[in-house]
Design brief:
single chain; about 500 residues; alpha/beta; Rossmann fold; Hect, E3 ligase catalytic domain fold; 3 domains; four-stranded parallel β-sheet; three-stranded mixed β-sheet; 15 helices; about 15% strand; elongated
Length: about 500
Amino acid sequence: MRVAAYCRVSTDANEQLESLENQKTFFGDFAEKNNYKLVKIYADEGISGKQVKNRAEFLRMLEDAKYNIFDMVIVKDISRFARNTVDFLNSVRNLKSLGIEVKFLSNNQTILGDSEFVLTIFSAMAQEESANLSKRVKFGKKVNAKKGRVPARVYGYKRVDNFTLIPDEEESEIINRIFDMYVNQGIGASGIAKKLSLNKIPSKITKSPSSWNSKTIRRILCNPIYIGRHINNKYEIKDYLTGERGILPESEHIHHDRPDFKIISDEIYNAAQNRLTRNRDLYKNKYTHTQGRESSRHIFSTLIKCANCGLSFSRKSYTYKKTRTFWICPGFNNRGAHFCDNRTTIEEQDMLDNLKIQLTEVINNKSDFIQDIITDYNKNISQNQSEYDFNKIEKQILKLESEKEKYKSMYLNEVIGMEELKLSVNNIEEKINEYKNKVYEYERICKMKDNIESNSKQLIYEIENLLNMENWDSIALKRLIDYITVNKNGEVHTVFKGIN
C-alpha cells in the first residue's frame, strides 16, 4: 500500500516538540514494519495547527490526494493533523470521499479507532490543549512585555536580543529624513513614501524600494520608540483559533523608558504628532473645512489646498472703496498660527488670470505638452529597463525556487540543520519577493504611461473647452484640475487630472 505521511512542528522550541527529522524517522520505521511504501512526507515547519488555510504542505497533501498518488495518510497523533475540530473533521471526510484512509498513530505505533465519534473526541481534546497552550503563551508574553521585550523588526534599529535594540546608522538617517520631510517640509505620508521609493531606499522586510507606502510612513511617525519610549502590551489575541488580534486599552499598556533607543528629538516628534492629530481630525472633511459646505458654490471651492495643514482654502470678500475677493487657509484664519502658519492669501482674479495664461501656453504648445509628458515617463522606464527584464526575472525566480528545494533536500538528508534551513529559505523568499515586486512596479509604470497618453489628450480637449467658455465655473474647473496647492511661501502648484 502506498502511504503518505503528514507531520508538523508548530514552534521552534525543541524541548517541547519533536523535530521534523525525528518524525521522518518515525514514519520510515512504521512503513517498513507494516510493509507499506512511503511515497511522500508532507511537512509544515513553524506553522500553527489551529487553521488549515495557513499550512501549505497540508493543503498540498489534500490537492495531491485528488491525483491518486497515495492510498493512505498516516499521522503520528491528532494534534499534528489539526487543533481545530471543524477543520479536522472536514479534512478527514474530504480524504475519505476520495477513497483514502487516514490513520492516527499513538506513541507505541498502534492505530487509533477510525470511528468518527472517537476521532471527534480526540480532536476536541487537541483543540482544548491548543486553548490551554494559548493561555500559557499569553501569560509568557505578558511577562516578557513587563521585562521590555522588543519587536523582532523595527525600522531604524538592529536587534541584539529579545530585549535590546541598537540604532542602525543608515536606517536612523532615513528616520530623521522622514520626520524632517513631514514636519519641516510639509510633505504628506504618501509623498514621503514616493520619495523613498524614487530614491531606491530599501524597506526593512522585503529590502525593496517599492514596498514603501503611506501606512508604513504613518506607523513610523506614530512610534514613540524613536524618542526612547517603548510601549508593550498594546494588543492581544482575542480568538486563539482565528488568530484575530484585539487592541488593549491604554491603561493596560506597559511603558519602558529606553534613552539608548533615541534617534530623533522630542520637539520634532511632538510636532509630527500635532500634525497627525490635525489630519485625523480633518480626515472626514478632507476637501472642505466645514461640514456640509456647498462644494461648488464658488469657482475655486474645494480646489485650493493648504500645503501645510491640508484644509481647503476659504473665500473671503470685503468692500472698501472697491470689492476685494481672496482665498485664505481657514486653519490659520479661523484657528490661529498655532494650528497652521500658512498666512498666504490668493487674490481670486490674479489666480484666474494666471491660470488662463498657463492654459493658453499649453494649448499653443499642445504637441510639446503631450510629448513632454510621454517623454518623461518613457525616460523613467528606459532608465530602469535593465531592472525589468521579465525573462531574466522569471529565470532568477525559477533558479531560487530550485535552490530552495535543494536546501530542503539537504535538510532531509541531514546535510544541514533546521536553523540553517530556516535562514536559507527565508533569504531566498526575500529575494523572490524582490523580483516579484519589480514585475509589479514595471506593470504599474506601464499602466500609468498608457493612462497618461490617453488622459493628456483628453486634458487638452478639456482645456480648449474651458478657454472657449465666456464664464468659468467650479464644475468646469474640476473636470480639468485635481487640486491646487499653496504653501506658506506663496508658491502655487496646479495638479491636472490624470497626469500628475
